[in-house]
Write a structure and sequence with these properties.
This protein is of the alpha/beta class. It is built from seven helices and 17 strands. Helix 2 crosses helix 3.
Length: about 250
């Protein structure tokens, strides 16, 4: 779902927008709101939303001043205003749409669909870019993978992945920097994708980057210990094969 923030100096307008979104099931997850230029800028930088629903006038200042204050705004912007005369200026800031108050839910829905299409196009471009990079890069240590969470698209170095854990039809990625990413795809897809990069399915719910195996703990059925001290269970039917691989690596 698209993440969005609402920036408008009128509390009743912010409430009305949220009610319209909820009532008409518009696919937006509102993750924050602000009433002035400075709070709005701070919110955008901190939350990095997909979409900003932005009033043109914020008190005595315009939101254009806020966008200039931020500089490089990666979020899409849909302006919401009671004044037609700011539309041309709004589109100079690459606005996706310009909606006049009072907000009509059909206009807002159409604007959100435009944002969805832009995001999809950008994701395809990112995936193609990563594919071309992988094809031209012969060093497997530098290969990358595109991971899409509900909030964001990540480009991850494959060798920055410690392990993957299944959560029904989702897969949780554990990264070297301690970050976790929840991806809405089953672990089987990543098992096949990462097989050529020294990843091993040690359990039906666990996929491990063997480069980060520290040792084997033999109690309680056996588990693989990683360099970050994570213990990953080894399934009984895979145990013999996994232990053979680990022994061949010279790990105890």
């Amino acid at each position: 779902m698209i993440t969005a923030v609402i920036i408008d100096d009128e509390a009743n307008v912010r409430t009305t927008l949220k009610n319209i979104i909820a009532t008409h099931n518009i696919p937006l997850n509102i993750i924050g709101e602000a009433a002035n230029k400075h709070d709005g800028a701070e919110l955008i930088i901190k939350a990095s939303p997909d979409l900003i629903l932005l009033d043109v006038m914020l008190g005595k200042e315009t939101s254009f001043d806020m966008l200039r204050l931020i500089g490089d705004v990666k979020s899409r912007v849909v302006f919401i205003s009671g004044f037609e005369e700011f539309a041309i200026e709004a589109f100079k800031f690459s606005a996706v749409d310009y909606i006049l108050k009072p907000v009509d839910y059909e206009e807002l829905t159409a604007a959100v669909h435009k944002v969805e299409k832009q995001i999809e196009t950008d994701e395809i471009a990112v995936k193609l870019d990563v594919l071309l990079n992988n094809l031209s890069n012969k060093n497997s240590q530098d290969k990358k993978i595109v991971l899409q969470t509900l909030e964001k698209t990540f480009i991850i170095q494959i060798q920055d992945i410690l392990r993957c854990e299944s959560d029904n039809n989702y897969t949780c990625f554990y990264l070297k920097n301690g970050e976790k990413l929840l991806i809405s795809k089953p672990i089987k897809q990543f098992d096949e994708l990462l097989a050529n990069y020294n990843f091993c399915r040690v359990h039906k719910s666990h996929l491990v980057n063997m480069n980060f195996v520290k040792g084997v703990v033999k109690k309680e059925g056996g588990s693989v210990e990683l360099i970050n001290s994570d213990l990953v269970p080894i399934s009984s039917r895979r145990k013999e094969r996994i232990l053979s691989i680990i022994n061949s690596m010279g790990v105890n």
